[in-house]
Amino acid sequence: MRAHDNPFSTDRLLKLRYLPQNETWDGIYRRLEALRFHAAIVGPEGSGKTTLLEDLQPFLRASGFAPHLIYLSTEARPIKLQRLAAILPQANPSCAVLLDSAELLGRAAWAYCRWRLRNAGGVIITAHCAGRLPILVKCSTSPELLRLLLDKLCVADHSRACFAEDVFLKHAGNIRAALLDYYDQFARV
Amino acid sequence: MEQLVIEIEGRKKVFLPGDMLRGRIRWSCAETPKTAELRLFWYTRGKGTAHSELVEGLRYDRAGPSESHNFDFKLPLAPYSFSGKLITLTWALELDIEGCSDPAVEEFVVSPFGKEVQLNASL
After folding, report:
1. Do A142 and A169 form a contact (C-beta atoms < 8 A)?
2. Is B115 on the interface with A (CB under 8 A)?
3. The domain defined by B3-118 carries CATH number 2.60.40.640
4. What is the pTM of this model?
5. What are the structural domain ranges in chain B?
6. Sign of CA pseudo-dihedral B64, B69, B74, B80
7. How close, in Å, is residue B82 to chain A by CA atoms?
8. Could you give all domains of chain A from N- to C-terminal order, each with its CATH number?
9. What's the pLDDT tens digit per position in A15-47?
C-alpha cells in the first residue's frame, strides 16, 4: 500500500483527538477550574497526554485565557535555563502556559519554570509521573480504546482490527506505537 | 451557495518539471473575503513528520465576493511527485479565501516520466 493510501499515515493520526476514558469533558473542565488551571496530565508514553493538552486549548480560550503551548520534546537536551528563558512567555493572569513533556525538566529547570510562570493564569503540564502539580487526568489506555481509534480511522479490514489486543500488548499499551505498527502492517499489503 | 473552483488549463494532471502551469480560479462567497490567495505547494504524507513547502503564492487584494482570475506558475525542476510505502510527495494548488468555505485543493503530478515516481521501499 502506498503512503498516501495508508489509513495510519501521520496526517490521519493527527486528526484523532482525545477520547476521555470513564469520564466526560465536562468533568475534566470542572476539575481544571477547581484546580485554578494549575494541573498535570500524567500517564505513560502513547496514552494521549499531548493530545489532551492540545484539546484543552479551545476550553481555555472560552474561559478567557490565551493558551501558549510549548513542546519541550522538540528542544535539545538537557534543556538549559538559558533556553527556557527564551521559550517561556512573559506570563500574565490572562496567559495559560501548556508545557508538554515536563518530565524533561530537571529540578532546577522546573523551579525556574515555576518562578517564571508565577503570574500565569494557568499552567498545565504533561508528565510521565505525578508530583509537580495536582493531577487533572491520569491517562490510560486499553485494547477497547485502540479498537475505537481503529473505527475512527475507518479501517474496514476487521481481520486486522481483531488483533488489536495483540498489538496493544506488544507495545505495552502505547497507543502511538500500536498505530505505527498498524502503519507498517498496512504498508506491506 | 459558496463555491471555490480551481481549473487547470486542459484539465492536465501531469506536468514536466519546469512546465508552465496555467488555469483559472473563481470563487463565489456570501460575504466579502478578508483575504484571497492561490498557493502552489508540495507536501508529504506517510509515516513520521509531514513536510510541506510553499513554492509560490498569488494574493488578490481587495477581493470581492465573486471573482475569477487567470493564473500561471512556472513549476520548479524539483522535487518530483513520488510515492512509496513510507512517504508520498504530492504537488497541489490551494485556493484559500478567508471568510468563505474551506479551501479548494487541486492535486497534480510533476514528473519527467509522465507519472509519479514509484519507490519500492522495504520495511
Report:
1. no
2. no
3. yes
4. 0.85
5. 3-118
6. positive
7. 10
8. 3-16+141-187 (no CATH), 25-138 (3.40.50.300)
9. 999 999 989 999 999 999 999 999 999 999 999
